[in-house]
């Protein structure tokens, strides 16, 4: 799954560690989500969307659409 977390985080001036602290996850988890190596759980995805005050679908994009 592709996402815009890195860009959103940069706009806020937040490090991966700071975002991880806010979300109560590890910095490695934030890095893995940003690089697409890990898809967050639905509760974590909603927490990320709330953190950036963005709709979920504006942050997360499937690799390819299914018909």
TrEMBL record:
SMART domains named among the record's database cross-references: HTH_XRE (SM00530)
Signal peptide: none
Sequence ranges assigned to domain HTH cro/C1-type in this UniProt record: 5-59
SUPFAM superfamilies: lambda repressor-like DNA-binding domains
Keyword terms: DNA-binding
Pfam family membership, one: HTH_3
PROSITE patterns attached to this UniProt entry: HTH_CROC1
Protein name as catalogued: Helix-turn-helix transcriptional regulator
Organism encoding this protein: Massilia rubra
